[in-house]
Amino acid sequence: MTTTQISTSPLVSGPQLITGLPSTSNVSLDIFPQYIAALYIDYIYIPICATLGIVGNVLAFCVLISSKTKSTTYVYMSSLCVSDTMVQIANILFFVHKFPGHETLKVSMSLYDVLVMVTMTIERYLAICFPLSAGRWLTLSRARLLVVLEAVLVAGLDVQHMFLRGMRYNEVANQYYCQPMPGPTEFYAHKIWPWIDSVIYCYGPLACLIIFNILILRQVKSSRAFQSKMAGTEAADKAQGSSSKMSDAELQVTRMLLLVTSTFLVCVGPMAFIIVAERYFWFPSTPQEFATRYFVRTIFNNLDYTNHALNFFLYCVSGRRFRQELVDTFSFLCPAKVKATTSAKGVTSGRDRPPLEASSSTAITVT
């Protein structure tokens, strides 16, 4: 396999390398529209996605830490805000090509983000299925401990690259690159690690999210069926007064789970596929094929980044209480208007409004 230097658009700083092409000089990709389109997608979309993602995650973090409601859900959501922000910062560093460690930062924070999301989903399942015991199991101290342990796990997985990679000189580009060292480590990095990375980052978490979301939906459905059977009894009449609130909370949980799962599937799934495809069966043999692969990878890579910029908007769309918390947090910007709106709609204050959990059966609900 040879390496060929190509000339690129001014949007890209430095020479790009094609592996696996015939060793010819001055191979230009600027003549292929798919390659030019990929460059402009990065040039236009990356700054927009990173800006919206950072602003949204910072706003969500401010809402979470300033809320009077303290729950395990807030611990996980705050961690997601931090990790998503770091991914977007790495995205900008990748865009300007000036920070050599941006790939490690992006991979580490992306993996941490996924682990936290899976942990939060499992906690929701436990809280809904075991409401009487959830209060003892799911505590703030344990949530904080899990967040720290997951960070240690991610660091342990990534520290291996310090021993597997090194600076290798490329004569064509006339510069050094951080690449796997020749020998068994190169085989591991190119053939084995992509599968491990895809399973940990995408396939495993996606399977967990689908399974636990199905279990949660079944539990919500059976709970509603049980409530309907109790209709007509005196005990049901008393419980019916709070059942509407419980049903509303369950509906918001279902909406959030579906949004998170579908967003993760659409945004992350394609990238995990192309990582494996590039290592095993998608080897471009001509500059045009390379340009096509570059375009497809650019689309999927930006979808992956988009996943880390949407959480704030998902919270706003699916969580009515989160929207109210957002208004309460930033009410100082326009106190007169917020006060008038609150009085007109009869919205209770943050102190009097019931917490996000709303019921024992949804003790760690995100709303």
UniProtKB/TrEMBL annotation:
Q: Where is the composition biased (Polar residues)?
A: 358-367
What are the entry keywords?
Answer: G-protein coupled receptor, Membrane, Receptor, Transducer, Transmembrane, Transmembrane helix
Q: The G-protein coupled receptors family 1 profile domain covers which part of the protein?
A: 56-315
Q: Which Gene3D superfamilies match?
A: Rhodopsin 7-helix transmembrane proteins (1.20.1070.10)
Give the region (Disordered) as residue ranges: 345-367
Q: Where in the cell is it found?
A: Membrane
Superkingdom, according to UniProt?
Answer: Eukaryota
Q: Which InterPro entries match?
A: GPCR-Ligand_Int, GPCR_Rhodpsn, GPCR_Rhodpsn_7TM
Record carries keyword Transmembrane helix: yes
Q: Name one GO molecular function term.
A: G protein-coupled receptor activity
Where is it chiefly localized? membrane
Q: Which GO CC terms are listed, alphabetically?
A: membrane
Q: What name is this protein filed under?
A: G-protein coupled receptors family 1 profile domain-containing protein
Q: Which organism is it from?
A: Batillaria attramentaria
